[in-house]
Task: inverse folding
């Protein structure tokens, strides 16, 4: 007899919270491989933070791009820049062809490729700085790396270094560089000076004449070593800028990384003032350091340092009256009485400092009359000169007249206008503090454009003082456009390009492109990335 089979028991229903969830929301057991590669893992997060910190400290790709540009410029300069008339290194070597014909054309091409890479690297660095992905240490690393290849290059976009050495040679041989031109002492040093300055006395202060004299004595008249030594001496000014900018930004309300990018990493500064080299770099370095000392309440010391800047090049003296306002405003009591006190103290310190420099250099005050030699330069970067040239051009349609009378009139009007601007800005600066420094920067800009002669690197004067201010995005874009254009308006051998109109049009197009690229990473839409994948700079 068969036993009836019992029904199979059904499993007890699962009433847990996990079973109540839809299948797609149920928690699965962790996958070891997925856990190991998860970006949320603490080790991965720590590595990401370290990488971001390293990139902020050293934007490696951008730095290397700029280094490649500097190296290309240094190599191209061997054949295309302000080379020696008789080069002892290349004259009897197999590389002398780079200074003639197609060889020189190739050198020019290489130099301009390097210039383009340098500008590209600077703009890319500016994007990173604006969005605070790169800080001041990253900018300083870029400045150092981009400067080193230029130290050993022939003079870039100028032959002024040979003038400095020739003037130091005059002083070393007991001649007065404020009375004699380089041609008074014939030889290799004099023959490499531009024909414009062969018979003109030195317009520089006693401290710079002393420095040039020491360089010539040390290098023994070797032009290559002399250029390198001069450049190293000027780089001291760049170091002072890098030291002063953080403090200036703190006082003036700007960001340190932005200020360093604007002034220290700027190709206008590195290529012209370091690559040149030009003594303006030493002047603005001392100027920046002195202004910071005054803002840090070390007033007399700051005024002494700015006076040393004026003992290199007289332009720096324009900042001294503005610094007196900064000092006077910090004293209690009547502003008028405080101004008299601080002005007398500052003037005494300046006179004593300049006297010591003059006595040690063994020169006199002949540099004051020699300042007129700059009027030899005629180009339309100077507004008075531009007005004279335009008036001369229009008049020439009707009658033939020389340019000289036009220059005499417009430059006189320009100097009167400049005097009015200086007095007005100085009076508005009486509130002291950061406003006085801003007014000093505007005054330096007026000096650059209203003087009888203007050269592209003169715009470094106001830029150093203004870099620490709070810059808007539009201001940074305009600054990039102006800097790149000023960088390009001189040919690599030092000749001006200001009258090569087709070239200037191309330079303007490149400058606008660089400026737009600061805020739009791919303005020409050449990238293969989708537009929505491109990073945007605010």
Result:
């Amino acid at each position: 007899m068969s036993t009836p089979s019992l029904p199979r028991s059904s499993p007890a229903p699962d009433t847990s919270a996990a079973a109540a969830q839809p299948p797609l929301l149920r928690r699965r057991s962790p996958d070891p491989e997925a856990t190991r590669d998860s970006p949320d893992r603490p080790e991965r997060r720590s590595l990401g933070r370290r990488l971001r910190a390293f990139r902020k400290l050293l934007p490696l790709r951008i730095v290397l791009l700029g280094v490649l540009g500097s190296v290309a410029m240094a190599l191209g300069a061997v054949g295309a820049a302000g080379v020696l008339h008789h080069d002892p290194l290349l004259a009897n070597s197999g590389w002398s062809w780079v200074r003639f014909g197609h060889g020189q054309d190739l050198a020019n091409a290489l130099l301009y490729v390097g210039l383009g890479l340098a500008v590209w690297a600077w703009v890319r660095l500016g994007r990173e700085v604006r969005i605070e992905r790169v800080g001041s240490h990253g900018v300083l690393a870029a400045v150092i790396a981009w400067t080193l290849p230029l130290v050993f290059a022939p003079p870039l976009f100028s032959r002024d270094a040979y003038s400095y050495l020739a003037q130091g040679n005059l002083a070393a041989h007991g001649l007065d560089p404020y009375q004699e031109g380089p041609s008074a002492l014939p030889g290799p040093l004099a023959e490499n000076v531009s024909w414009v300055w062969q018979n003109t006395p030195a317009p520089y202060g006693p401290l710079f004449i002393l420095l040039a004299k020491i360089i010539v004595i040390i290098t023994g008249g070797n032009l290559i070593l002399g250029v390198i030594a001069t450049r190293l001496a000027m780089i001291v000014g760049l170091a002072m800028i890098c030291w002063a900018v953080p403090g200036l930004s703190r006082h003036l309300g700007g960001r340190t990384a932005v200020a360093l990018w604007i002034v220290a990493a700027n190709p206008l500064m590195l290529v012209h003032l370091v690559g040149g080299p030009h003594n303006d770099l030493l002047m603005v370095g001392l100027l920046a350091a002195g202004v910071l000392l005054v803002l840090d309440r070390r007033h007399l010391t700051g005024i002494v340092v700015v006076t040393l800047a004026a003992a290199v090049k007289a332009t720096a003296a324009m900042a001294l009256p503005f610094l007196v306002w900064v000092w006077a405003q910090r004293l209690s009591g009547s502003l008028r009485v405080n101004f008299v006190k601080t002005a007398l103290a500052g003037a005494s310190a300046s006179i004593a400092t300049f006297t010591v420099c003059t006595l040690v250099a063994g020169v006199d005050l002949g540099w004051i009359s020699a300042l007129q030699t700059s009027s030899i330069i005629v180009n339309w970067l100077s507004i008075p000169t531009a007005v004279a040239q335009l008036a001369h051009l229009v008049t020439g349609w009707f009658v033939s007249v020389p340019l000289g009378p036009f220059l005499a009139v417009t430059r006189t009007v320009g100097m009167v206008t400049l005097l009015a601007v200086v007095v007005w800005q100085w009076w508005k600066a009486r509130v002291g503090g950061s406003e006085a420094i801003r007014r000093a920067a505007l005054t330096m800009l007026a000096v650059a454009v209203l003087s009888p002669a203007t050269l592209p690197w003169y715009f470094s004067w106001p830029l150093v003082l203004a870099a620490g201010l709070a810059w808007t995005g539009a201001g940074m874009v305009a600054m990039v456009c102006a800097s790149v254009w000023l960088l390009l308006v001189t040919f690599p051998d030092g000749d001006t390009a200001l009258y090569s109109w087709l070239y200037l049009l191309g330079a303007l197009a490149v400058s606008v492109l660089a400026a737009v690229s600061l805020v739009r990473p791919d303005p020409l839409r050449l990238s293969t990335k989708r537009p929505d994948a491109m990073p945007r700079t605010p």
Remarks:
- The radius of gyration is 30 Å.
